[in-house]
Specification:
This protein has 195 residues and is of the alpha+beta class. The protein has 2 helices and 11 strands; from the N terminus they run H-E-E-E-E-E-E-E-E-E-E-E-H.
């Protein structure tokens, strides 16, 4: 029973440690605002399955946001919620151990409400929004992070290791107690039994 409780505890600990993937966007916008991310796990994009963060204007910023681990069907990135020229150097992701890391390629995105897309001298991308429109966003249909079933398997294996460790520890502990008890009890001594 103790091993099962430790395995459940282990699963919960591993769930907390592997629950979120860090997404980082290196961007610069003319006017400050809010950067928003949305993921689609099968029911369309929703704010419940996303996150947002403030982004200052006129300064290159590393915007970091945590999103749930596991490959979404699609990911949507709204660089800023104000009308602004947007410069993006890169978008990276880093999963918790034992996951991986990588980047989303800006030329693979489907950009919406963008009048023109240019490459700058540093290899970044400059977006010019459609005049009068502050709802510029990109959608990636192919997200290269690990899948939800993969993360579930990692968590189950971790829980099994916690449970097996508790079982092994308990077995060794019990054997050592039996060994100590045998040393303390003389071999020919009669132990009275209460009736």
């Amino acid at each position: 029973m103790f091993s099962i409780l430790v395995a459940v505890f282990g699963y919960l600990v591993i769930l907390q440690l592997t629950g979120d993937t860090l997404w980082t966007a290196s961007i610069e916008v003319e006017t400050g605002g809010i950067t928003m991310w949305y993921i689609d796990t099968g029911d369309g994009f929703s704010e419940k399955e996303g996150n947002y963060k403030d982004v200052p204007g006129g300064v290159k910023t590393e915007v970091e946001i945590f999103l749930p681990s596991g490959t979404p069907r699609k990911i949507r990135f709204d660089p800023v919620n104000t009308e602004s020229i947007i410069a993006i150097d890169e978008i990276r992701w880093k999963e918790p151990w034992p996951g991986g890391s990588g980047r989303l390629f800006l030329d693979e995105a489907e950009w919406v409400n963008v009048e023109s897309v240019e490459n700058d001298s540093t290899g970044g991308t400059v977006l010019h929004p459609v005049s009068g429109n502050s709802d510029v966003y990109a959608v990636w249909s192919d997200v290269p992070t690990h899948s939800i079933p993969w993360w579930r398997m990692v968590r189950i294996v971790g829980a099994a290791i916690f449970g097996a460790g508790a079982f092994a520890f308990g077995t060794i502990w019990n054997r050592s107690l039996v060994h100590i008890a045998k040393k303390q009890t003389p071999v020919n001594e009669v132990i009275p039994v209460a009736r």
